[in-house]
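User: Can you predict the 3D structure for this chain?
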Amino acid sequence: MCKNTQLGTASLLRRCRSDNVSVAMDLTAARLLLNILQLMSANVPELLDAWRMVIARRRFDGQVPLSELTRLQGLVADTEGQCTYSLEFDRDNILQVSYVDLTIDTELPLICQRTMQRFLLPVSIKQRLGLIKDEEEESALPEEYEAMLVPEDGSLRPLDLVEDELVLAVPVVALAPGSEAVERDFSATEEELSKANPFAALAALKK
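Assistant: Here is the predicted structure, written as structure tokens:
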């Protein structure tokens, strides 16, 4: 009995140690992910030279809280959440066009206009922006390029690009996925319809 008890205690201790190691590993992984995200954002300059970035073929990866995108305020339910983005500069030597590939992934908190409940709208954007110095160059861009006017000094704010795309991504009328199904499942009864439309009730009496 004593031997079995000792073995049981030893097994319990090993399990506790294993659980503690697992928790420690989870915390370490979480801290590592947070550090990576912080480094990603730190590597994206607030202001950069687009033309130099094209020559260097630079890529930037970052993350920004929605609360820092001030133009979104008033368009969304709140500013909780994060936005992950990347900018990759390059030049098409055949078409002789400089461009930046912009990628954005986030979830925008909105209020459904049917249910009046908060929901998250997934937003995934991939946009190729053709960098031009004057409006005359826009006509030479391929159809899949979105023109972006850049000054001679190449001044470009990455977060301005991100915010522009997210503002455009906000729907005019926000509807949560599945809200139409809810509306169909709870259709009005005949009594409710007659109250709303007395002429329908009169027509029913004539039948």
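The radius of gyration is 28 Å. The CA atoms of residues 130 and 147 lie 5 Å apart.
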